[in-house]
Amino acid sequence: MISFFKKQFHLAPVFIFILITTMVLPAQAGHLSPEMIKEYSSMDPFSFILMEFGFIVMLALIGHMVSRQYQLPEMLGELMIGVLAGNILYWIDLSPVFYMLMHLGDASEIFKSIWTSNMSVADTVAHYFTPDQPETQEFVDRLSTVFTTNQSPGLILLGVALWIFSNFGVFFLLFKLGLETKTEEIINAAEPLAFLVSATGTFVPFFLGLGAGLWLLPEASTSMHIFIAAALCTTSAVATTRIFTRLNRQQSREARLVIHAAFLDDIFGMFFLSYIVNIVLGDTLNIAEIIALLFYSGVVFIGIIMLGKWLIRQLPELHQYDELHIRILLPIIVVVMVSWLADSLGIGIISSSFIAGMILNTMPDKEGLIKDLIVPLEKIFAPVFFVFVGMQVNLQLLIKPEILGLTIVFLIVAVAGKIAAGYVTRKNINHLAVGLGMIPRGEAVLIFISIGKILSVIDDTMFSVITIIVLITNFIAPWAINRLCAAKCHDDSFAVKAS
Fold first, then answer.
1. How far, rounded to the nearest angstrom, does the alpha carbon of residue 271 sit from its chain's CA centroid?
2. Is the pLDDT of residue 111 over 80?
3. Radius of gyration in angstroms for the set of CA atoms belonging to the chain, rounded to a whole number
4. What 3-state DSSP class applies to 457?
5. What does the domain layout of the chain look like in residue ranges?
6. Which of the 8 DSSP states describes residue 71?
7. pTM for the whole structure
8. pLDDT confidence band for 13 (50 / 70 / 90)
9. pLDDT at 414
C-alpha cells in the first residue's frame, strides 16, 4: 500500500487542492451567517455543485487507482472509497450535505411531500416521522435543520444535482451493458444447461431471501420483503468473466457455462428487476394482477425491442453521413427517445436504457462511433454513481449486533442460493466451481436498491446491508474459486492454479 501511494505522489498537490476546497466550502455552507448568506447569494450556485462533483470524481479516481493496484474490479474500489469518505464526513458532521446524502431516501420523501402538500417544511418533517424514541427525535430535529435553514435551498439543489449526476451514471452504465449484449448470439451460443443454471440461480436466492426476510423482519412491508429477495437474485457477468480470465480458465467447460448463465442472468435479470419495481410502484400484490403485469411487461419489452430494431434498419449506416455531429448525435437521439418510450410505458429506468443499448447494437457502425462516444461518458459518470452509493452506506448501523446478524444471514442466503445453481449441472462438470462462479453481485443490484431507497421501499439499514453483501461477494468469489476448488476440480476441465 505504501509503495502504491509513493508511485502516485506526483498527484498529491491536485488531490490536496480538491480535497480542501470541496470540504471547506460545504462546511461553510452548513454554518452561514446572514452576512455570508448575502455574499454567497450573488454567486452562481452551480459553482458549489461543480465543486462537489469534482470531489466525488476525485474519490472515484482514488478508488479506481487502488483497484487497479490490487487487481480488483474498479467498482469495488469506487464503492469502498465512497463508504469510507461518506462515513467519515458524516461522523465529523462536516456539512448538512453529507447528512442529507446518508439519509437520501427520507430526504427525497420529505422533499416530495413539501411540493405536493400545503404544509410547511417543519410540519412536513414532523408529520412524516413519529418520534416515539429519543434517537428518532434527534434524527427528526437534525433533518429539520437541513430543510428549514436559510441555506436549505442551496443544499437541496446540491443534493438533487448530485442525484442527477449519479443517474447519468446509471443510464450510461446500463446503456453500455445493453450495447455490449448481443442477445441473439448469447442465446444461440448458450447450451440448455446455462438456462437451467441461470433460472436456478435466480429463483432459489429469491425464495430463500423472501423466507429470511419474513423470518427476520416480520414487521417490514411485503414490498420490502420482495425488494430484498429480488436484490439477491442477479449475478454480475462482468465480475464473473473477470474472475475466470484472471485465472486464465475462461475456456474451461465450467467457465463457459458460468459466463453464459451470467449473461443470461443479466438479460433476464434486467427484466425481472424492472418487473419487481413495477409491482411495488403499483402496489400490485393480487395474483391475477401480478400475472397481468407480467404479460404486459413482456409484451412491451419485446415490442419496443422489435420496433427499435425496425427503426434502426430504416436508417443509413453511420459512416455514410459526412457531418460528424450527425454521426454522433443520431445515436444519442435514438437512445434518449427509446429510453423515454420504455419508461413512459412502465418498463422503468433499469430496463429502458438497457433496451436502448440492445437496440442500438444492431445499428451498422463500422467505425465504432457509438461505443467510442458512450464509453468515455460511462467512464465519467458510472464511478460517480458507485461513490454516491457508497456514501449512503451507514456503518454505524452495521456494527449493531442485530444488524450484523442480519447481514450474515442474508450473505449466507446470497451465497447458498447461487451455489445451489451449480448442482443442477451434469456429473462431468464441477458443481462447486459453477456455483461459486455465480456468486458475485454487481451493478444491477446497486441500481435496484438505489431505486428502492429513493422510493422508500427499503430503509437505510437494508440498503447498507445489501451494499456490503455486494462488496463481500466480489471478494469471496475469486478467493473461493482459486483456493477451495484447486484440489477438487478436474485438471482436464478446470485446473485452477492456487497461488
1. 15
2. no
3. 23
4. coil
5. 1-102, 105-147, 165-494
6. T
7. 0.84
8. low
9. 95
